[in-house]
Model the fold of this input.
Amino acid sequence: MHPSSRVCGERVRAMHYLRIEIWGTRDDSQKIIFAFQPKLASSDGIYSRGESNMARSSELEDEFGRDMELVLKREKEVGLISVRFMQMIERWGAIGAARRLLEADRELPPNTFTYLRSIDRLDLAMEYYVVMPKYGSLFSEAERQIAAFRLRAED
Done:
């Protein structure tokens, strides 16, 4: 570990927090502090509102990931294999992959949505899940708008 980095654990409100300080400039005049709370239950089993929301968000992210795994399995039924999407999920997780694919300037494979629309299988597009109300909290409004546009527009 770099001598100017320091890691210390603090116990606050029966939860574990990790505080990491990294001196980030050449002259050590500024420091960056990261503090995060692991997704663990408190020792007394009581969650604060923030902890409960964090657990729900994690469960929702997991559910989105399972849905993307199902999409990858079901797309084979119609002769599609999304190798690049599978690799992106392995590297960045389902949410990270989706966010990268939802970048406004992202170039997509041609005719994908036209083909899915022609066989009435837009449910095999990641964008179909991004616009679902239950996943609304996982994505920004801009990401949801991009997904909705792709689903209704021609390639």
